[in-house]
Amino acid sequence: TQPVLELRSVSKTYTVKQGMFGKPKPLKAINDVSISLKRGEVLGLVGESGCGKSTLAKILLGLEEPTKGEVRVDGEVIGATDRRTLARRIQPIFQDPYSSLNPRKSIEDIISLPLRVHSIGDSNTQDKAVREILDIVGLPQRVMRTYPSQMSGGQRQRVAIARALIMKPEIVICDEPTSALDVSVQSQILNLLNDLRAEFNLTYLFISHDLAVVEHLATRVAVMYLGRIVEESSVGGLFDTSGHPYTQALLKSVLTPEAGKGVPDTELGMEYPNPIAPPSGCHFHPRCPMAMTHCATVPPRPVPTPEGHVECHLFDTENGHDTGTPLMREGV
Length: 332
Ligand code: SF4
Ligand code: MG
Fold this sequence. Notes:
- The chain is built from 11 helices and 12 strands.
- By secondary structure, the protein is α/β, with parallel strands linked by helices.
- The chain has a domain at 98-168.
- The strands form 2 sheets. An 8-stranded mixed beta sheet has the order 6-7-8-3-9-10-12-11, sandwiched between helices. A 4-stranded antiparallel beta sheet has the order 2-1-4-5, covered by helices on one side.
- Strand 4 and strand 5 form a beta hairpin.
- The protein is elongated.
- The termini are far apart.
- Mean pLDDT is 88; it is low at 254-260.
- Bound molecules: iron/sulfur cluster and magnesium ion.
- Iron/sulfur cluster is lined by residues 245, 282, 284-285, 288, 290-292, 295, 300, 312-314.
């Protein structure tokens, strides 16, 4: 069946200047990425802060234009001019409801805003729609007249979900939707998202730095490192022991890092590299416990697997890149 949402060979390059007199340099936030989502599916997108996952979300939401490549919805290429119509079909839920909800607006105004922006219905039907959606996300009607500051973090995230779903979208881009919440509230919100997906046959792209959270919801997972999808697999396949060394490291990090702080460096030996100066060869080689000498010079190519693909020399038997001299370096 045709994917409902697809990225084909999408790249996004920014030009950044370091310091006042620094030369402008290209930053490849996304480097030739292809993903596709079937209707009703949940694709988890996992990676550390700075890997490009939020840029990818912005491209899908039309907040950024790709430098190269195509965004397709139902097989059709989407251009900048289609974004307004697309907003009815693709809606976001962001990480931090504190910053994404206008503190000066009542909850009723916040939730009904998309309907007013897109001139859907009149004030009567909009009012009715807000009441209905409050029920659906498990909030009492009385919150309509209150303000975000009067609500708990979990309630605010329910408001953000209500605001996204009032447009009856088909696709929801969830960018770290539970990272700002307490653990007990996290699972409530994840369960709510799961129920809503089943009830309305929604398709999710679920972005998180936390593989445990993704495992909860996703059917497939894409692992991102410095702008590349280094592994894509079914959730079951991912917990197999034979995956990409980076995925293995993510799986082993028992400590869940703070939002945006990345993997605890006890596992990987060093900090996430600067995307302006990505390491040569395999971008992961300075942190990889399995690295071989050629990993430092030869970029790995995606190798197809039964469940997706993996981008690592260890799997590239055809090229004979799967064996070699271990790379010796300090600290790993
Ligand atoms: Fe590690 Fe080499 Fe595979 Fe990169 S290509 S993940 S450095 S083994
Ligand atoms: Mg982010």
